[in-house]
TrEMBL record:
Pfam families cross-referenced by the UniProt entry: NAD_binding_10
The protein's name: NAD(P)H-binding protein
Segments forming domain NAD(P)-binding: 18-202
Organism of this sequence: Massilia consociata
Lineage top rank: taxon: Bacteria
Amino acid sequence: MIQPAAFHRPRLLIVGCGDVGMRLLPLVAARFRVFALTSQRERCRALRAAGAVPVVADLDDPASLRRLHGLADWVLHLAPPQPEGVLDRRTRHLVAALGRVARLAYVSTSGVYGDCGGALVRESRPVAPRNARARRRVDAERVLRAWALANGTRLSILRVPGIYAGDRLPLKRLEQGTPALRPEDDVYTNHIHADDLARIVLLSLLRGLPGRVVHAVDDTRMKMGDYFDAVADAFALARPPRLPRTELEAVVTPTLLSFMSESRRLDNTRLKRELRARLRFPDVATALAGVQSRPQEEKPA
């Protein structure tokens, strides 16, 4: 039951309340009256139990979003674009329904930079997406910037790399023996623990500068194959075989190959200076050292 005092709290709408959103709910329940958008009625009970008021609507159905108008003053947009095309229709539907809000934080992806050849990347680097998935994210950022400017909304954008947690590790991939690139062909990857990301999302909403992009990334400087090796060692699994890129292209899926074709190291200076974030898991090694048992089935990022 919602207590009377909750009606006097600022209203927060979470759009895309999946794994990270559920980790976020305990952090915001005491500060806000929280509404959580879901397209699945069967999730309403879990959302209520976590302290949110469920709102059943679908970002792919603009008519269902009418109830969002004026619902909340603060918004967290964690929902991914639809899986096809180069425009993010879901974000367009959302902003058309929201009207004016005071603050909005959006969780984007580091994939907007494309391949950077292993260079250190700061938030000022121009975007250069190489696939439709990343182009949709660039489109979403541009739509939100224009909408925020027109409506006087304080917008913060987080660019997020690979999300991991105890139940979000590539164990199935390791058990199947999926190969990785040999060291001389390998790419740098970037990481953030899901619990840290939940806290960063809240900090972005509270402390983010207007229109500012921040990398939500830890201190890890690791190539993809080394990451797989570290997870394998932590769970006493065989390390993946290493192949030259020319051979690996013939045996992995196009989606996995796309992740193995972009190399960059994200700078997190803004995260620490502007959002004043303190990471519980500053690097992958710290998190793996604390894993006590075998996690559940790997979840998608």
